[in-house]
Amino acid sequence: MPEQKETNNYRDILISWKVPEYEKHKRSKKWYIGAGIIAFIFFIFAIITFNYLFAFIVIIASFIIILYDAHEPNLVDFAITPEGLIVGRRFYDYDEIKNFSIVYKPRLGVKNIYFEFKNFLRHRLTIPLQDQNPVEIRKILLKYLPEDTERVDPPFSENLAKILKL
After folding, report:
1. Is residue 161 part of a domain?
2. What does the mean pLDDT of the chain come to?
3. Is 165 within a domain?
4. Does the N-terminal or the C-terminal CB of the chain have fewer CB atoms within 10 Å?
5. Claim to verify: residue 44 and residue 86 sit in the same structural domain
6. Dihedrals φ, ψ of 87, to 5°?
7. 81 and 135 share a domain?
8. DSSP result, 98-164
9. Interval 54-71 mean pLDDT
10. How confident is the model at residue 94 (pLDDT cuts 50, 70, 90)?
């Protein structure tokens, strides 16, 4: 009986690099004072309106922001394979992904790939390009996914998060 060779195409990495698991913003003392005042106002409002769940969410959100700010984000592996994308320990099959777009504006500090999922409940996946060649990445991805050529700027939600340093 002939030996069967197991092939794992997701291990055939076409290109890979390391990316931070989230974007860490530099926050000033003024930012913390302003955020603390806003959180306090939301907390008082929640107590006055007897919305204790909202008060609890405000407290938890404040602690999460403080905890995340206390340490640097871990670097995770990102890889493009013939079968899909690998982000850390998570594998995304191309069948799950609707399209991709590359926004490359180094002068503005924007060098990202955006992946939109077919499932509208799933959030967009943003991958920083780091020092990768966007033309090479685009060439590889076009073999597997359609490109959203209409996206020429980062999504509004990312711009808002950058402005608010969230």
Report:
1. no
2. 86
3. no
4. N
5. no
6. -125, 105
7. yes
8. EEEEEEEEGGGTEEEEEEEESSTTSPPEEEE-TT--HHHHHHHHHTTS-B-TT--S--HHHHHHHHH
9. 90
10. very high
Reported as half-sphere exposure (CB side, CA atoms, 13 A), residue 142 has a value of 8
Name 135's Cβ contacts closer than 8 Å, sequence gap at least 6: none
Q: Count Cα atoms within 13 angstroms, Cβ side, for 50.
A: 0
Whole-structure pTM value: 0.74
Range of the domain at 49: 29-69
Task: Classify 17 as helix, strand or coil.
Answer: strand
52 and 15 housed in the same domain: no
Q: Is 80 helix (H, G, I), strand (E, B) or coil?
A: strand
Q: What is the DSSP letter of 136?
A: H
pLDDT, tens digit (0-9, with 9 covering 90-100), for 113-129 = 999 999 988 888 999 99
Whether residues 49 and 86 fall in one domain: no
Contact criterion met (CB below 8 Å) for 146 and 99? yes
Structure tokens at 120: 């509208």
Helix 29-48 crosses helix 52-69 at what angle (to 10 degrees)?
160
Of 124, 123, 99, 103, the C-alpha closest to 113 is 103
Which DSSP symbol is given to 82?
S
Instruction: For residue 141, give the amino acid letter.
Output: L
Tell me the β-bridge partners of 92.
Answer: 85
